[in-house]
Amino acid sequence: MTRVGAAATATRLRLPALGIGLGATVVLLFAVSLAVGSAPVLLAEAVADLLAGRDSLAALVLVEIRLPRALLAVMIGASLGLTGAAMQGLLRNPLAEPGIVGVSGCAALGAVVVFYSGLAALVPFALPLGGIAGALGAVALLYALAGPGAGTLTLILAGVALNALAAALTALALNLSPNPYATLEIVFWLMGSLADRSLAHVWLALPLMLAGWALVVTAGRPLDALSLGEDTARSLGFNLDRVRLQLVLGTALAVGSAVAVAGAIGFVGLVVPHLLRPLVGHQPSRLLGLSALGGAAITLAADIAVRLAGGPELKLGVLTALIGAPFFLALVLRMRHEAAT
Amino acid sequence: MRRGLAALATLAALAVTTPVVAASEGPRRIVSLNLCADQLVLRLADRDRIAAVTWLARDPELSIMAEAARTVPITRGGGEHVVSLAPDLVVAGVHTTRITVGFLKRLGYRVLDLDLPVTLDAVRAQIRLVAEALGRPVCGEALIAEMDRSLAAIPAGRVGARANVAVWQPNGFTVGTDTLIDTVIRAAGLDNFAARRGIAHYARLDLETLILGRPDFLVVNRADEGPAALATEMLRHRAIDAAIAATRRIVVPTRLWVCGGPETAEAIALLAAATADGPRRSP
Q: A62 to chain B: which residues are within 8 Å by CB?
């Protein structure tokens, strides 16, 4: 009893420190992201021009090219971290993550259909709404196929099938579209990238993404109860159907808008909650906010790395998969080991 | 079963009959496997001697002969299809459909490989080469004369210093030295932004480099947005709108300078006229 109490106290003390530390890391990486680029723009000079209201080219590069990139990295990373933690709680499955289980893939499909049909140019917010529709379909399908208690294997297999189907339909949609570049652009939708995005993409994604965050974050306490089992959660007075709907909708809104402007970036939602969980104790509500910060930090760092790597710029999802996939394999191995002992 | 055998027999017959035609008459079943070869074949050969051109020849964005290509059969360049057309001359590009061309050469078909001409003299030489192969040397000379007349009609010696132009194509590609497009830019009395940065052939130009380099003019391939694509979406990035005024954007349709021919003169004239204001005045 005392040991548990001491651990809880330690976690309580550690939580603010962890939040501040992660927040500071995000701010630092955000500044680095603004300073990094192919052209020799001095950050200090550009900021000075901006503050003085001078329309210099350096200020233009900073505001119109680098700022949207850094903002999108934060927004998308936070969405992926947050929804990764939420899905792991909702499905009570440590391997759940938007990318692995096919939510990002289906969001990309929805966005692709809307974008290449020309609908995105005609109807405001059609692009993120297309991504959200795809994500919503995927989450609903996953919940039906591999809801709580279905086991890790079922969830992963459902994810494999969804990912394969989404990738195939994405390729089909691109093949049928009337422009000659479409088949080359499949890599963007499947691997994700923040290259050459503009402030227009930030404004496109932000409103619906914020709504998604709000839905997920306010489901923190019921998620805590849910981690003790459905019966317990119900006996504590939570309406489980409403909680599930809230989380499914929130995840779809956040992931759908993220994928619609940057393609599917995998593994962020897997790695971040896993790294943070041992530090905050197994309480989903605490994990949510920290995972959002952690996701933002990791995505910013990865997007800085692809720009520093040289050569033709790597897709962001390539880098996150290079780090995330071995991590995923290690998790599988550990789970197998735990199951054996 | 009998129908299948008959079809097989026809195919076999097609494969072994590589028609031999007297050189003076010229080839009678011409197949073109390359967009630029299409343009020359459509211009120089008799319509009824063209067995097929590529599907690209019908695209009005890419092909100056799109209208003419509408009444000619098309091919997507598969070896099987080309063989079934029983060509006696295949005109191909040295950089395209190489697998099909290798296959056709092994089977003994006569293939004329066309390189990408870089200079105006190379364009003339290529027109001459294709005209000879088609058995239409006189038509070739007439086409060259047409091009030279258009070139001579371009007003020479413009006022002001040489303006700096950047070609900005889908996916952020630009065109540097050792290309026909560079020749066109220089012939119009202009400076190629990419060439000045040491870029040869086609290469990606970074958005930041373009903005900071601040070219006097931006050359794009179409005025409207075209079908939705990420490749063209980036051409309308807000940073470009802010850095380069809409009045300093020149539209040179791809069909005017993707291949060499009389349209090359049209591209030069268009660029020269559109840049008559000269370079951007320093602020």
A: none
DSSP B280: P
B137 and B168 share a domain?
no
- pLDDT (0 to 100) of residue A13: 63
Q: Which of A214, A65, A49, A113 is nearest to B211 (CA)?
A: A65
Whether the CB of A50 is below 8 Å from some CB of chain B: the reply is: no
* Judgement on whether residues B171 and B218 belong to the same structural domain of the protein: yes
* Residue-number span of the structural domain to which B232 is assigned: 164-274
Cβ contact B228–A116 (<8 Å): yes
Residue of A55, A179, A306 best to disrupt the B interface, most CBs of B under 10 A: A179
Separation of CA A86 from chain center: 11
Q: What residues in chain A have per-residue pLDDT under 70?
A: 1-13, 148-149
Q: What is the ipTM of this complex?
A: 0.76
pLDDT digits (tens, 9 = 90+) for A200-252: 999 999 999 999 999 999 999 999 988 888 888 889 888 888 888 899 999 99
Q: What is the CATH number of the domain that holds B52?
A: 3.40.50.1980
**Test the A interface: residue of B35, B174, B233, B254 with most A CBs within 10 Å:** B233
b or e along A122-153 (b: 16 or more beta carbons within 10 Å of the residue's beta carbon)?
Answer: eeebbbbbbbbbbbbbbbebbbebbeeebebe
Our CA-based measurement puts residue A298 at a distance from the nearest CA of chain B, in whole angstroms, of: 24
Check if A108 contacts B (Cβ < 8 Å): no
Q: Are B212 and A178 an interchain contact pair (Cβ–Cβ within 8 Å)?
A: no
- Which residue in this structure is represented by tokens 């209201």? A53
* Domain co-membership, B141 together with B209: no
Closest by Cβ to B242, choosing from A41, A64, A196: A64
pLDDT, one tens digit per residue, over A190-205 is 999 999 899 999 999 9
Residue B204's SS3 state is strand
Q: For B180, left (φ over 0), alpha (ψ -120 to 50), or beta? A: alpha
CA distance A41 to chain B (A): 9
Average pLDDT, 10 consecutive residues per value, chain B (283 residues)? 47 43 73 96 95 95 94 91 95 91 94 95 96 95 95 70 87 93 93 92 90 92 82 86 86 94 93 80 47
